[in-house]
Design brief:
The chain has helices spanning 15-23, 39-51, 66-69, 102-114, 136-146, 155-164, 207-217, 230-239, 255-259, 291-298, 311-315, 327-339, 341-358, 361-383, 393-400, 404-407; strands at residues 2-8, 29-35, 55-59, 92-96, 120-124, 149-152, 194-198, 220-224, 244-247, 264-267, 272-274, 283-285, 303-306, 319-322. With 411 residues, it is an alpha/beta fold.
């Protein structure tokens, strides 16, 4: 089964682990066409292509970039980029990008030109019903009418798809974690209770609430990341040099050792309004997943997250949740973990089970391949010559086509 994937945008490094899990399967051949990815993503995908016979990676040139416009919706493949993959013979095309993206429209046109009968699936992560300016709504509705199957990452993302007009089949497929890399480490040496944060240092990540909760709890804080609020963390570290440590971005291999130094991980995200597409359109920004949560859970680190976006879905019963922006409530949840070792161990064990059973990239690759295999079988059945209803083969043809159970998998 040959899968052609298109992807755009800077924050694509984590897809490399999924691509590795897919290309490790003996029944999968994988080709990725990407544009405007980060340097780390390009290096990771190039490395995968060099080490796996069934994986190919093409970095296409682009006209508009996320850096220039502030939003991945505007990233555009340079005309002619389709020549990089036109000789491929995919069984399924998968688009990593929302329905309204310009690159999604280009991927659909590429499919219609070269492989018009190939099923097409679409990633979806938006957890807020956003009305984009013209012409994005037209592109979005065209994508909804064209795609064969949607693959939202959370139940909320599925609800948004339905609200915006997508009525086709869908399967929820979350983001994942590499459980070979993110594993429990030996307990840290006894010392001050340490709360960790990993992510972009931006207002919607709740940095101010995190710093205030640290003061209330009088604990150590290990911050891993970078962003516009880096100066706020640095100023706090000057006031509390023995309590706050700031580390720059850690790559995939370095992060587990940093997580191992934490007694709990906090993700205190908040909702903010973005105006980076056009200044007169405000786009609510809520945490769409919080991948660091499943990375910490896989390492056996208890997690605490705000009740915003899809953080509660990701945490489930494997962590604690608090009202977004409420620093005393965040301090209270962290104090429960610090002061109750039994509860901390229970949360750590529950997190490991949840990460392994539901969020490992191998499990997610299995789910994707099951869906894609059913779609290819349905497409093959649809192309078969019609069999007279009196023929014994007619019943068998109906049995392999249609797959209503696939449509209802998430209902």
């Amino acid at each position: 089964m040959h899968i052609l994937i298109t992807a755009v945008g800077k924050r694509t490094e984590h897809w490399g682990r999924l691509f590795a899990a897919l290309s490790d399967r003996p029944d999968v051949e994988l080709t990725v066409l990407a544009a405007d990815v980060s340097r780390l993503a390009e290096q990771e995908l190039t490395r995968l292509a060099a080490g796996r016979e069934r994986f190919r990676f093409h970095l296409a040139p682009h006209l508009l970039s996320e850096d220039r416009t502030g939003h991945m919706a505007s990233v555009v493949f340079r005309p002619g980029s389709g020549r990089l993959v036109r000789n491929e013979q995919p069984d399924v095309i998968h688009i990593i990008g929302e329905a309204a993206y310009l690159s999604t429209r280009q991927a659909i046109r590429l499919r219609n030109r070269y492989w018009p009968h190939v099923p097409i699936t679409l990633y979806a992560a938006q957890n807020v019903v956003t009305r984009f300016p013209f012409p994005f709504p037209l592109l979005e509705q065209h994508a909804f009418r064209t795609i064969t199957h949607a693959l939202p990452i959370t139940p909320t993302a599925l609800q948004v798809l339905r609200t915006k007009g997508y009525h086709g089949p869908a399967t929820i497929v979350p983001l994942g974690v590499d459980t070979d890399v993110f594993q429990p480490a030996p307990p840290p040496q006894p010392g001050p209770f340490t709360v960790g944060f990993v992510g972009r240092l931006e207002p919607h990540k709740g940095i101010s609430a995190l710093l205030r909760a640290r003061e209330l709890l009088d604990c150590r804080l290990l911050v891993v990341g970078d962003g516009s609020l880096r100066g706020e963390i640095e100023q706090a570290a000057v006031r509390y040099p023995d309590r706050i440590e700031l580390r720059e971005w850690a790559d995939h291999a370095e992060l587990p050792s940093l997580l191992a130094r934490m007694d709990a991980l906090a993700l205190p995200s908040m909702e903010v309004i973005q105006r980076n597409l056009v200044p007169w359109i405000g786009i609510p920004l809520r945490e769409q997943f919080g991948r660091v949560l499943v990375e910490a859970m896989a390492c056996g680190i208890p997690v605490v997250g705000s009740a915003i976006g899809d953080i509660p879905y990701v945490i489930g019963s494997a962590g604690l949740v608090f009202p977004a922006g409420d620093a005393p409530a965040l301090a209270d949840r962290l104090a429960r973990i610090r002061d109750n070792p039994d509860q901390a161990r229970q949360l750590a064990a529950a997190g490991r089970r949840r990460a392994s059973a539901e969020f490992s990239w191998r499990h997610i690759a299995d789910t994707l391949c099951c869906t894609w295999r059913q779609l290819t079988d349905d497409a093959a059945a649809a192309r078969r010559p019609m069999v007279p209803s009196s023929s014994p083969a007619h019943a068998e043809l109906r049995a392999v086509g249609g797959s209503p159970e696939l449509n209802e998998r998430i209902q």
